[in-house]
Amino acid sequence: ILLIALLLGLAGCNSSYPPTDLSAEPLIPVPVSVTSDGNSFQLRHDVTIFVEEGNADVANAGEYLARLLFPATGFDLEVEATKRSPVKGHIYMHLDPADSELGKEGYELNISDSGLELKAAEPAGLIMGIATIRQLLPSAIESSSVQDSAWLMPTGVIRDYPEYAYRGAMLDVARHFFPVEDVKRFIDYLAMYKFNRLHLHLSDDQGWRIEIKSWPKLTEIGSKSEVGGGEGGFYTQEEYRELVAYAAQRNIMIIPEIDMPGHTNAALASYPELNCDGRATELYTGIEVGFSTLCTKKEIVYDFIGDVVRELAVMTPGKYIHIGGDESHVTPMEDYIPFIERVQKMVTDAGKTVIGWDEIANAELAPDAVVQYWAQAENAQKAIDQGRKVIMSPATHAYMDMQYDSTSRIGLHWAAYIEVDKAYDWDPASIEPSISRDDILGIEAALWTETVTNIEDIDYLVFPRLPGYGEIGWSPSDKRNWSDYARRLGAHQNRFDVLGIHYYQSPKVQWK
Ligand code: TNX
Predict the structure, then answer these.
(1) What DSSP state is assigned to residue 30?
(2) Pairing state of beta strands 152-160 and 107-112?
(3) What is the mean pLDDT of the chain?
C-alpha cells in the first residue's frame, strides 16, 4: 500500500500540491458563487487552449488569453479549434447559449486538477472569465518578463454574472491630454476589474481632442492647449479606432463625449462663427467652469454639431454618444432646452443613443436617452419621471478626482474627500432615496483631470479606488462588505507592484 501511495505521489497527482481553497481567493469583484474542491490545476508549457470550433469570437477570446499568459510564463500556448470537449490537462473555452442565467457577460469557470473549462452564454462572458483566471494565478502573472513560478490555480467552480449592465469609468482627456499608450493602460486597468464602458471626455474649454475632418481647425487650433498651458494634443481618427479596437478586445465599449453647449471654449476659439458675436475666443488654460456656450440661435452651430456627430458615429461602433450638457451656466434655460432637444435628434438620426449629464433631463428626453446622475437628484428624478434610465456617478462617492483626504498631493475636494472606504461603501440603489434599482442602468466612476498631468497622477487617484467601483457594478450588494473587501484589496498589492502602478497607500486598506 505504501508503495502504491508513493507511486501515485510520484505520478504528480494533486497530492503533491498543498491544499487550496478557491472560495478564499481575494477576487475582485467578488463572484456570485464559488465552490472549492481543494486541489490545484497547473498551467504548464504544454497546455493547449482549446476553443469551440466555428466561432470567431470564441477563438479571439482564446487568443486573448494566450497573449495575456505569454509574457510572465514564457509559454507560447497553442490555441486550437475543437468540436469535442477537451482532452485532460488542457483549457477549453466554449459557449452554452442555453445557460441563460449567465446572461450577456456571465461565465462559469470549472477548474479541476485535470483541466480548466470556461463557458459563457455569449463571447463577452469568456472575456469576463479570463479576468477571473488572471486573478487566480499568482501575482507574477502580471509581469511583462518571464517569471519563475509553478503557475498553480486552486480548483473548484465559479458561476458569476454582473449586477449592472453598465460598468463604466470616465477619463477626461480634455483638461489634460493623455497619449494613446496611457489610454490603453487605463483600459487595461478597467479590464482587470470587469468594467465594460470607457467614457472619453473628448472636448472641453481647455482642449478639443478628436480629429473631425470636416472641421479641421478644431484640432489645428483647439487641441493645442490644456490646463496649465501645456501643449495639449488630440487623437487622429485612426488612433481613436485603434483605441476602440483595443477596448473591444477586452469587452469595453468606448463612449465618446462632446460636451455642449457649455464647456466649449476650445471649439469657440477654433471657429469664430460658433460664437454669437462672431469672434473667436482665446484658448483657455485655467480650471473655471461654466463660462462658455455655443451660440444656440445660429444655424451654423447645428451644421457643426451634425458634422461632428456624424463623423463620431462612423468611427464609434458602440451604441452611445454622450452630449455632455453639464454646467451650461451662461446658456439661458429657454435656449438650453431646445438646443438639447435638437442635438438629441441629431444623435438618434445618426443611429446612436444619447447619454448626457443630469442637467439634460430638463429637456424632453429622446426615447432611449440615458441620464448620468452626478450632482442633482432633482434632475435624475426628471429623467425617471420621463421613464428613462440613470447612470450613477454621484460626485460625493464616484469622482476619482476627489482627494482622499486633505493631504492628497493632487485632486480637488469640492464634492467630498473620498477615502477608499467611502469610495467602496455605498450602494447605487439606495444612495439617493428617489432613485431605485429599476431606474439604474449602472455606475460610472469619473476621473476629471484638472490636477492630473501624467500616468503616475492617474495611478495615484485611480488606485486603489477603481477596483471598488468595479465590484459595486458587478457584484450583488448582499455579497459586498467593506471589511472583507479591504482584505481582498490589500491582497492585490502585489499585482499593483508587479504592474508598476503608482497607487496611494491608503491607511484604510489591509495591505498584505
Ligand atoms: C464638475 S461633473 C464637472 C467637471 C469638472 C469636475 C471637477 C461635471 C459633469 N462637470 O467639468 O471637471 O466637476 O471635479
Answers:
(1) P
(2) antiparallel
(3) 96
Residue 327 among the catalytic residues: yes
Q: Provide the grid cell at 53.
A: 470550433
CATH class of 166-476: alpha beta
CATH number at 11-160: 3.30.379.10
Contact 443/428 with Cβ under 8 angstroms? yes
354-372 pLDDT, tens digit each = 999 999 999 999 999 999 9
Q: What is the DSSP letter of 405?
A: S
210 CA distance to ligand 1 middle (Å): 20
Decide: helix, strand or coil at residue 93: strand
195 in contact with ligand 1, CB cutoff 6 A: no
Q: Catalytic residue, from 242, 327, 341, 432: name it.
A: 327
C-alpha cell at 501: 502602478
Q: What tens digit of pLDDT does each residue of 171-216 get? A: 999 999 999 999 999 999 999 999 999 999 999 999 999 999 999 9
Locate 347 and state its grid cell: 444623435
How confident is the model over 323-330, as a mean pLDDT? 98
Give me the pLDDT at residue 185, please: 98
Of the CA atoms within 13 Å of residue 229, those in its CB half-sphere come to 0
Looking up cell 493631504, which residue turns up?
407
Distance in Å from the first CA to the final CA of the chain:
42
By most ligand atoms within 8 Å of CB, the mutation choice from 291, 448, 450 for ligand 1 is 448
Q: Is the pLDDT of residue 7 over 70?
A: no
Rounded distance, CA 218 to CA 203, Å?
A: 10
Q: What is the interface pTM, i.e. ipTM, of the complex?
A: 0.95
Q: How many other C-beta atoms can be found within 10 angstroms of the C-beta atom of residue 431?
A: 15
Domain residue spans of the chain: 11-160, 166-476
CA of 453 to the centre of ligand 1 (A): 16
